[in-house]
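Morning!

As promised:
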Amino acid sequence: MPGVYDVVIIGGGPAGLTAALYTARARFRTLILERLAPGGQMATTEHIENYPGFPLGMNGVDLSLRMLEQAERFGTEVIYDEVERVELAGPIKVIRGQLGSYEGRTVILATGASPRKLGVVGEDKFTGAGVSYCATCDGALYADKRVVVVGGADSAVEEASFLTRFASQVTIIHRRDQFRAAPIIVERALQNPKIQVMYDTVVEAIYGERSVTSVAVRNVKTNTTETVATSGVFIYVGLIPNAGFLAGVLPLDRGGYVLASEHDLSTQEEGVFAAGDVRPKSLRQVATAVGDGALAAAGVERYLSGVIKTER
Ligand SMILES: Cc1cc2nc3c(=O)[nH]c(=O)nc-3n(C[C@H](O)[C@H](O)[C@H](O)COP(=O)(O)OP(=O)(O)OC[C@H]3O[C@@H](n4cnc5c(N)ncnc54)[C@H](O)[C@@H]3O)c2cc1C
């Protein structure tokens, strides 16, 4: 075991990377545990144009690597391991990963969220063979092919526009009669001749042989059904928090998000904080995740300095 860290940050997305930048810069021994790659959801986004400081926008992977570099510059250690269990009571917290166990005087939970599944026939069978949750990762596989995007919020509409770089046609299938995305994103998509929209429509099944060939859809107003030929199905229907390993350890809300004080992001366990998409909040973006990271780090600093008790 590599000794006791001042802070163990679980998750290396923008919330975790920012928290690490602050705590490492404050000279606290800081460890990030990340199960995949730095950047989290941010790294699956092709173009981020609403994060301040980059007037022309920024590629999500590049922004992730910059945040990592900045955190590491001040001494943050990163270990790639998936956390499976935590023991958070008492002054030394124990974090058990697949590869090892780690100890921290404080913990920041920054595990973010993962794409929600549609839950229809064929979804699991064709994941990786036509079904995708990441246009940035898989879009290039659909050069000159038809794809559908399922969803109606920012990520769905934005990623539909991105997919027109490769696909010959992109059909957005949305269950309501209007989008929930920002007007500028919708405007851009609707002006794109490669994009068409099926409103009031839900996907009921995904069909194929070795890979996807079509989806069965139903209009929720007329109840008519039809089959739409497609090679790819990109699903953006919301998120689920990566907090399963915290069930029974910390209070979660009905959606499974980790409850934390709005004031300083402290959780019910002293010295444990929650930051970013893993906690209940009204806006899940890079900017708000970064803000949470800074706030949780400030809580850690105060807790470790013994200046004030965390709010519970
Ligand atoms: C397609 C898409 C497009 C988006 N576009 C934009 C945009 O244009 N602008 C914008 O501001 N925001 C955008 N967002 C939202 C933004 O990316 C998120 O709000 C932000 O990344 C949340 O940061 P986070 O650090 O809280 O969590 P995440 O980014 O989800 O990072 C959490 C990290 O924790 C890791 N992790 C999870 N569980 C464990 C575990 N048990 N052990 C170890 N590690 C674990 C994950 O691997 C991940 O790296 C987009 C999101 C998506 C999906």
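The longest strand covers residues 101-109.

Hope this helps with the figure draft.
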